């Protein structure tokens, strides 16, 4: 048996998974998937989450991240704790999934803007008996990701990868229904690192459509704060990191005040369950604040809420 570590969690991989894991490790794909520096940056930033897990190692070894590593070096010159942003975000998302898994006997998951992050592997190992289906949605990389998942897990029906514009919500909801999504079980919608890249109008429309869709929905999302709201100790670092990201992307990062987000949720009759600054996430996860000392010293916040 192998073990896969996700942060402080250690899970045993089933013998069937081991078979596919060994195949992938002994017979890697002919060439690594080439992705943009910014897409690769996210995987590099969160390397701490994946580095000890053999499943994750096998997955990530087939993705070319060298350009992201170069971008990470430039980020660390601006803010030496750059990795902590992604690590805190991902650890806290796992913490929230644990919370909601205790609320629901069975549930579905829909990941918008899924990218190449292998969170589905983690979710299946943690909550396989509770999860009915995971739907991953993105405009690119879904075929490549499907190939990797098949190598790791074999042919299975629990993860559906959908190539689709996640902001084009009406046809997406139709496609989810066609692939087996239903309203009799709750759905957790994960929008990790997603609202940064879409317009305010599209974000508002997305929330409106989710609010009016059938069934119970939980939404987990994070958002970037305007740099001028950041504590003076990190304000200039935030500005420089945002500018560097925008230059890499070629378009602006959308930023929100907390009242922007909570106001939209309340307008569409959502019930806010959790709302955390980077400081409070660090405190809840580790019991103390070593990096984010002040309430406003973090660059992003996370919120989860329900539509019923």
Uncertain regions spanning at least 5 consecutive residues: 1-26
**Overall strand count:** 11
Q: Helicity level, as a percent range?
A: 40-55%
Q: State the strand order across the main sheet.
A: 7-6-5-8-9-11-10
CATH superfamily: Vaccinia Virus protein VP39
Labels describing this entry:
alpha/beta; Rossmann fold; disordered N terminus; seven-stranded mixed beta sheet; 11 strands; two-stranded antiparallel sheet; globular; single chain; 308 residues
Task: Explain what this protein looks like in three dimensions.
The chain has 308 residues and is of the alpha/beta class. It has one domain (3-307): Vaccinia Virus protein VP39 (Rossmann fold). The protein has 13 helices and 11 strands. The strands form 3 sheets. It has a 7-stranded mixed sheet with strand order 7-6-5-8-9-11-10, with helices on both faces. The chain has a two-stranded antiparallel sheet with strand order 1-2. The longest helix has 20 residues, at 82-101. The chain is globular. The relative contact order is 0.12. Residues 1-26 have low confidence and may be disordered.
What topology does this entry show?
Layout: E1 3-6, E2 9-12, H1 15-26, E3 33-34, H2 37-45, H3 47-50, H4 54-60, E4 63-64, H5 66-78, H6 82-101, E5 107-112, H7 119-127, E6 131-138, H8 142-153, E7 159-163, H9 169-178, E8 187-191, H10 200-212, E9 217-224, H11 235-249, H12 258-267, E10 271-277, H13 278-286, E11 300-307
Parallel strand pairs: 3-4, 5-6, 5-8, 6-7, 8-9
Antiparallel strand pairs: 1-2, 9-11, 10-11
Helix pairs in contact: 1-8, 2-5, 6-13
């Amino acid at each position: 048996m192998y073990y896969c570590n996700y942060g402080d969690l250690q899970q045993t991989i089933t013998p069937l998974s081991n078979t596919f894991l060994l195949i992938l490790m002994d017979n890697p794909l002919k060439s690594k998937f080439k992705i943009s520096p910014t897409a690769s940056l996210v995987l590099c930033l969160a390397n701490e989450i994946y580095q000890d897990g053999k499943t994750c190692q096998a997955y990530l070894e087939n993705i070319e991240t060298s350009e992201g590593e170069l971008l990470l070096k430039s980020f660390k010159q601006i803010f030496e704790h750059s990795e902590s942003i992604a690590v805190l975000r991902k650890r806290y998302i796992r913490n929230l999934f644990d919370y909601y898994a205790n609320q629901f006997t069975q549930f579905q998951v829909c990941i918008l803007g899924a990218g190449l992050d292998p969170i589905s592997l983690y979710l299946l190992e943690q909550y396989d008996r509770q999860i009915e289906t995971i739907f991953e949605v993105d405009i690119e990389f879904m075929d490549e990701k499907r190939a990797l998942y098949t190598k790791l897990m074999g042919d299975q029906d629990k993860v559906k990868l959908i190539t689709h514009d996640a902001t084009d919500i009406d046809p997406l909801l139709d496609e989810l229904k066609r692939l087996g999504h239903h309203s009799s079980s709750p759905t957790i919608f994960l929008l990790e690192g997603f609202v940064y890249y879409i317009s305010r109008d599209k974000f508002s429309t997305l929330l409106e459509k989710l609010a009016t869709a059938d069934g119970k929905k939980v939404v987990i999302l994070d958002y970037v704060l305007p740099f001028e709201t950041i504590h003076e100790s990190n304000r200039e670092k935030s500005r420089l990191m945002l500018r560097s990201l925008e230059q890499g992307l070629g378009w602006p990062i959308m930023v929100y005040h907390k009242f922007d987000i909570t106001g939209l949720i309340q307008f569409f009759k959502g019930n806010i369950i959790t709302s955390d600054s980077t400081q409070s996430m660090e405190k809840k996860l580790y019991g103390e604040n070593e990096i984010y000392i002040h309430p406003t010293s973090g660059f992003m916040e996370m919120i989860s809420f329900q539509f019923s």
